[in-house]
Write a structure and sequence with these properties.
633 residues, 16 helices, elongated, 61% helix, four-stranded antiparallel sheet, 9 strands, single chain, alpha+beta
C-alpha cells in the first residue's frame, strides 16, 4: 500500500507541475491597444521637425528622404544586412571553448581486476581518483568543412547587403517621383482654393436667383429651367474640381510623414512660367546608362553571383570534414602525476554516399545559375522597353502640357474680356460663371499636366538609376539635405544630371579592358616594323585595331592624384580579399578570366598592389576615377 501511495502522490505531483507550467492564449485588451496606439504615434511623428513657413519642392523631398517610413524601413533592412556581414566575419573564426566543472561521489570509485579465464577470487579493491575533483579546459577547434560553407555564406550575404542597398535606391527613386506629383497637385489646390470657393458661391447665388425667377414666372419656364441646368452643370464641375484638390494635402503629408490633419502650405512659384526639363542624350545613350545603373538590373547581377556561390557552397558541403582541436586541460585529482597538460587532436569524416550526390548537386547548381542568367537577360530586355516607354511617356506628357498651357492662356484672356463686359442680366452672369469655371478647370489641368511631366522625368531618372542625391554626400540635417536636393533638381530640370552621366559613360569602356603584356615581357620583346598598308581598307583596319592592342591603362586625365578603393582577390573569385586604394593614373590591367580582370597599381605610399577584380567593379571604379578627376579639375 505504501508503494502504491507513493506512486499515486508522484503522479499527482507531476500532473500539478505540468498544469502549472501550461500556458493559455491571451487576447489584447483595450489598455494594450491604447498603449500601443499612443506609443506608435509618438514613434511615427515624435522626432520630426515642425514645418516652419512654406514648403518648397526641395524641402518636401528632403522631408520625405529623412522621415518617410517606407524609406526608413528599407534603410533599416540595409543596416540589418550590413550587420549580418559583420556576423559572417565572426563565423569564419575557429571556436574557442572554455569548460569548467566540479564532480563529487559519495564513495570512492574503487575497482579491481581479474585475469581472463581465472577462477581465483578477485583481489583487493583499489581507486585512483578522489571523491571530488575540479576540472577545466580551454580548447580551440576548427572545422575545414564548416569554414568553407561559412565562407560562401559570407559572400552571399555580402551580395544580399548590396541588394538591400539597390532596393533602397529604388524606394528613393519612387518616393521622389511621388512627392513631385503630389507637390504640384497641392500647388494647384492652394492656388485655386479661393477661386473655386468664390465661383461656387456665385453659382449658388445665381441658382437661387434663377429658382426665384422661375417661381415668379418672369421668364418662360423652359428658358428658366435651361438656365438652371447650365448653372448646375457648372456647379458640378466646380464640385469635381474641389474633390480633386481636397486630397492633395493629405497625399503629400503621408509622403513626408506629417500628421494628415496638419495645416501646412507649399511655396507657389513666383512666376507663372513652368520650366520643361530637357537633355541632349539620345535613347541609345540612355539604354547604355540604364544597363549600368538601373537598381533592378544590378540586383539581378548580385542574385546571379549568389547563385554561383550557392553552387560552390553546395559542392563544398559534400567534401570531407577535417576537425582540428588544440587545448589546455586541468584536473585537480591528487592521484595524477601532472594536473595540467596540452591536448591536440585531428579527425577526418566523410559520408561515402556524398560521392553519388556530387553530379546531382552540380547539375542543380548549373541549372540555378542558368535560370539567374536567363532572368537577368529577360530583365535587360524589359529594361530596354522601359527606357523607350519612359522616353515616349515624357514626350507625350510634354505635348499634353503644351496643349493645356495654351488652353489655360486662352481661358485666362477670355475670362478677362468676359469680366469686363459682364452685364447684370442673367445671360451675362451665366457667361461669367461658365467662363470662370472653364478657366479654373484649364489651370487645374495645366498643373496636372505639369505634374505628369515631372513624374515622367522622375520615371526616366529612376530607370537610368540617377539618384536625387549623389553618392558620398554627407548631408544629415534637413537643411543640408534640402540644399543638396535643390541642387540636384536644378540638374534634373536642365538635363545636366543625365548629360553628365552619359559623358562619363562614354569616356570609360563598358567591357573588360584588353589584356596587355607584362612589364618584363615588354622589356624583352623587340618592336617589329609595322607594314605599310596597300589600300584604303587596310588603313581602316589598322586604325581600328591599333587602340585595342596598345591599351595599357584607362585614359584618365588628372591634375592631381586621384585614389579609388578596390577589393582585390588573390585569383578570379578566390580568397583572400585585400582592400587596396589605388592611384587612378597607375591602374593597369592584365589577363582576363570568366569576367575577372587582373589589375595592378600603386597606392598612396607608392607600393605596388596587384590582384583580381570583377569587370563590373573595375568599370565602376574607373567611372569613379572619372568623376573624381572631373570634380578635381
Amino acid at each position: 500500500m505504501k508503494l502504491k501511495n507513493i506512486k499515486f502522490l508522484a503522479t499527482a505531483s507531476l500532473v500539478v507541475l505540468l498544469t502549472a507550467c501550461s500556458t493559455s492564449p491571451e487576447s489584447l485588451n483595450q489598455a494594450d491597444l491604447s498603449l500601443s496606439a499612443t506609443t506608435d504615434a509618438e514613434l511615427m511623428f515624435g522626432d520630426n521637425e515642425a514645418i516652419s513657413g512654406e514648403l518648397t519642392l526641395s524641402d518636401a523631398i528632403a522631408r520625405a528622404l529623412k522621415y518617410n517610413l517606407d524609406h526608413k524601413a528599407k534603410a533599416m533592412e540595409q543596416a540589418l544586412a550590413m550587420r549580418q556581414t559583420d556576423l559572417d566575419k565572426l563565423e569564419l573564426l575557429p571556436t574557442l571553448t572554455a569548460n569548467a566543472g566540479y564532480t563529487h561521489t559519495s564513495e570512492y570509485d574503487a575497482t579491481n581486476s581479474q585475469t581472463v579465464g581465472s577462477s581465483a577470487a578477485p583481489g583487493a579493491y583499489t581507486y585512483s581518483a578522489d571523491k571530488g575533483s575540479i576540472t577545466g579546459d580551454l580548447t580551440m577547434g576548427w572545422n575545414l568543412l564548416d569554414f568553407g560553407v561559412s565562407y560562401y555564406n559570407s559572400k552571399q550575404n555580402n551580395n544580399r547587403a548590396l541588394i538591400a542597398e539597390e532596393r533602397r535606391r529604388k524606394v528613393i527613386h519612387n518616393l521622389v517621383k511621388e512627392v513631385q506629383a503630389a507637390y504640384w497637385r497641392m500647388v494647384a489646390a492652394q492656388k485655386l482654393e479661393n477661386r473655386v470657393k468664390a465661383a461656387r458661391k456665385n453659382a449658388q447665388q445665381a441658382l437661387m436667383q434663377a429658382e426665384r425667377i422661375e417661381q415668379e414666372r418672369v421668364q418662360s419656364p423652359e428658358k428658366a429651367l435651361r438656365y438652371q441646368k447650365q448653372l448646375l452643370q457648372n456647379t458640378r464641375q466646380l464640385e469635381a474640381i474641389n474633390q480633386q484638390l481636397s486630397t492633395a494635402r493629405y497625399e503629400l503629408a503621408a509622403l513626408i510623414n506629417v500628421r494628415p490633419g496638419t495645416n501646412f502650405r507649399v511655396a507657389i512659384p513666383s512666376t507663372d512660367t513652368l520650366v520643361l526639363p530637357k537633355w541632349a542624350a539620345s535613347v541609345e545613350d540612355m539604354e547604355q546608362l540604364a544597363f549600368q545603373n538601373n537598381p533592378d538590373l544590378r540586383e539581378k547581377i548580385y542574385l546571379t553571383r549568389i547563385a554561383v556561390d550557392e553552387t560552390k557552397k553546395s559542392i563544398s558541403s559534400l567534401l570531407p570534414g577535417i576537425d582540428l582541436s588544440f587545448g589546455r586541460n586541468y584536473d585537480d585529482n591528487s592521484f595524477r602525476d601532472e594536473n595540467r597538460w596540452f591536448e591536440f587532436s585531428t579527425s577526418l569524416s566523410f559520408n561515402l554516399f556524398n560521392v553519388f550526390k556530387i553530379p546531382a548537386r552540380q547539375a542543380f547548381g548549373e541549372a540555378n545559375e542558368k535560370l539567374a542568367e536567363v532572368q537577368r537577360l529577360a530583365l535587360r530586355m524589359a529594361l530596354l522597353a522601359q527606357v523607350h516607354v519612359a522616353d515616349r511617356k515624357y514626350h507625350n506628357a510634354v505635348k499634353m502640357f503644351e496643349q493645356a498651357d495654351k488652353m489655360y492662356s486662352v481661358d485666362k484672356r477670355l475670362s478677362q474680356h468676359v469680366s469686363k463686359r459682364a452685364r447684370s442680366n442673367s445671360e451675362g452672369v451665366l457667361e461669367s460663371i461658365s467662363q470662370e469655371t472653364a478657366a479654373i478647370g484649364s489651370e487645374l489641368q495645366r498643373y496636372q499636366a505639369y505634374s505628369e511631366v515631372m513624374a515622367a522625368v522622375g520615371r526616366i531618372h529612376s530607370t537610368l538609376g540617377i539618384g536625387i542625391i549623389p553618392a558620398g554626400t554627407s548631408a544629415t540635417t534637413l537643411d543640408e539635405i534640402s540644399a543638396a536636393v535643390d541642387h540636384a533638381m536644378a540638374d534634373w530640370r536642365s538635363g545636366a544630371a543625365i548629360n553628365k552621366e552619359v559623358q562619363v559613360l562614354n569616356q570609360v569602356p563598358t567591357e573588360a579592358p584588353a589584356p596587355v603584356a607584362k612589364p618584363e615581357a615588354k622589356a624583352k620583346a623587340k618592336p617589329e616594323p609595322e607594314p605599310e598598308p596597300e589600300s584604303k581598307a587596310e588603313i581602316t583596319a589598322v586604325e581600328k585595331t591599333e587602340p585595342q592592342a596598345d591599351v595599357k591603362k584607362p585614359a584618365i586625365t588628372v591634375l592631381k592624384p586621384v585614389y579609388v578603393d578596390f577589393n582585390l582577390n588573390e585569383g578570379p573569385g578566390e580568397a583572400p580579399i585585400m582592400k587596396a586604394t589605388l592611384d587612378c593614373k597607375s591602374i593597369e590591367t592584365g589577363s582576363t578570366e570568366n569576367g575577372w580582370v587582373e589589375v595592378s597599381g600603386t597606392n598612396a605610399k607608392g607600393l605596388n598592389m596587384n590582384g583580381w577584380v570583377h569587370s563590373i567593379y573595375l568599370t565602376q571604379g574607373l567611372l569613379q576615377c572619372k568623376k573624381l578627376a572631373a570634380a578635381g579639375s
